[in-house]
Amino acid sequence: MATVRDVSGNNPLGDTDHAIGGHYDLQATKFLGDQHPLILGAASVQSPVFSRQCRAIRLAPEGNCHYLVSDNPTAVKDATQFLASGAVEILTVRGGTDRIAVIQDAAEMDLVMITEDKS
Questions:
Q1: Does residue 107 surpass a pLDDT of 70?
Q2: Quick one: residue 18, left, alpha or beta (phi over 0 = left, psi -120 to 50 = alpha)?
Q3: Which of 48, 54, 82, 105 could make an SS bond with 116 (beta carbons 3.0 to 4.6 A apart)?
Q4: Phi, psi of 82 (to 5 degrees)
């Protein structure tokens, strides 16, 4: 797991959002970075490597899918993490190393939008 930072702007004694030092504060994350649209299909599809500054991604599928994050992932239907259509998942990643792989859960082809943080 990547070393992550508290980007809340709060000091440890006055931390009102309960961020834990050394952990990623998703309340302060702005997902305005690079976007990686991937087409869901019957075969696993990988994103490009996330930018070096990226510490989290937002995953928003328009169809049911399975996903896996690592340096060379392969998503496998019914064996990797499931995400339903219309749901949103926030995942911590290792910038400059990790990428995500996705595969469809059903027969329809759809789109998954992956957006990097820009904190």
A1: yes
A2: left
A3: 54
A4: -100, 145
Q: Domain span at residue 69?
A: 30-116
**Nearest by Cα to 82 from 99, 104, 98:** 104
Strands 81-83 and 45-46, by their bridges, are unpaired
What is the torsional sign of CA 24, 114, 79, 73?
Answer: negative
Q: By C-alpha distance, which of 62, 91, 67 is closest to 4?
A: 91
| Residue 4, in any domain of the structure | no
Backbone angles phi, psi at 74, to 5 degrees: -135, 115
pLDDT band at residue 16, thresholds of 50, 70 and 90? very low
- How many structural domains does the chain have? 1
